[in-house]
Design brief:
Layout lengths: L13 E5 L6 E5 L5 H114 L17
Antiparallel strand pairs: 1-2
Length: about 160
């Protein structure tokens, strides 16, 4: 401010009242009567105009901030929806993969069970054949031994041998 724009300490016909919600006080002056008072009145009018302009600018700024916030909320909501859809897709894929592996595991288990049963049957058949072969071989060996050893005293219940003519 310049010196010629400075306000006097007090005017006899001036009173103070609150100017706005900012608790600032403004000077209310009786209608101007001379050049100095006209200047004071003009300054008050300019101050009111500046105060209104500042209030409008503040409101515009608040409106812009609110618009930006609204845009950000919409972007956030879209991102959340997209993330949820992605999560649902991943969850569905995981469920499908698990189900696929369960089926493969069940099939493999069934094949293994079938192969095990078949191997068991083959082992039983081979074991029976081996036992039958061993039994037959032992009987043949016993029969051959009996044929080569002619000791009737050893077998008291054996039929007497017929003389060879």
């Amino acid at each position: 401010m310049t010196e010629d724009m400075m306000l006097p300490p007090a005017l006899p016909n001036a009173t103070t009242q609150p100017a706005s919600s900012y608790s600032a006080e403004r000077l209310v002056v009786a209608p101007p009567t001379d050049g100095y008072e006209t200047l004071l009145h003009d300054l008050q009018q300019r101050f009111k105009a500046l105060e209104q302009q500042l209030a409008l600018e503040q409101q515009r700024h608040c409106d812009r901030v609110e618009e930006e916030l609204q845009k950000l909320r919409q972007l956030l909501a879209a991102a959340v929806r997209e993330h949820q859809q992605h999560q649902h897709g991943v969850s569905a894929m995981v469920r499908e993969t698990i189900e696929h592996f369960r089926k493969e595991f069940a099939d493999a288990l069934q094949h293994l069970s079938h192969d095990f049963a078949q191997t068991l049957r083959q082992t039983e058949v081979h074991s029976r054949h081996a036992l039958d072969s061993l039994r037959e071989e032992m009987l043949l060996m016993l029969h051959a031994r009996d044929q080569t050893s002619a000791r009737p005293e050893r077998y008291p219940f054996a039929a007497p041998e017929e003389p060879h003519a």
